[in-house]
């Protein structure tokens, strides 16, 4: 597999869809206390799994929150945070309900949402949420909710070349045409001289070509063969918060290496046949 294809495979398939995390898969609603019509709720949540989870493959959470009025709130207050109790439902309200012997295997506090300050819903007095959530492990290609990645991308390395020396105020002006850190202005024998410091920081805004004087002294390109030469590629991975980006990339590389090994084993098996 060529290096370029390997990066594309890791970005588009492995990182996004081929290693798993736990997420809510099915939800049971014991009652409807929200004031909505029951038929509306049943239609909205009709696809609930038929299979019952076990302590081996399922984590169960209970979310039960009722909004009430605060009897101690000031009469002239209009702040919902003061008027109501439990009007904001957060992930910290989710309570782990052990299945089977899970309570013996996992100490208290180890099974919980990754972040406890995610807002789930806002309620008003008389409204209540009462539901049971079943979390299972899945991968992104089964359903997007299991993907731990928000955005994954890569780009070719920018190639910036100064065709002639740029000195004096022109050097300062040139540095302003690029992202900070791309063009560095140095003092050489009392003169300000521009040099390309870090082309990787460039966003390819092409602002320099709007300057009639400077557009003739700069050449912008991309390193087309960087995959083969130095593997200079910038990979950007944003996490949804379940796993840190560096862990996502390292785990994706492991999955990709495993796929390569299996492919080589299949080639060896074909040659032996």
TrEMBL record:
Biological-process GO terms, alphabetical: DNA-templated transcription
GO MF annotation terms: DNA-directed RNA polymerase activity; protein dimerization activity
One Gene Ontology cellular component: RNA polymerase I complex
Gene3D superfamilies cross-referenced by the UniProt entry: DNA-directed RNA polymerase, insert domain, RNA polymerase, RBP11-like subunit
Keywords, alphabetical: DNA-directed RNA polymerase, Transcription
Stretches assigned to the DNA-directed RNA polymerase RpoA/D/Rpb3-type domain: 16-266
Stated name of the protein: POLR1C
UniProt organism field: Cervus elaphus hippelaphus (European red deer)
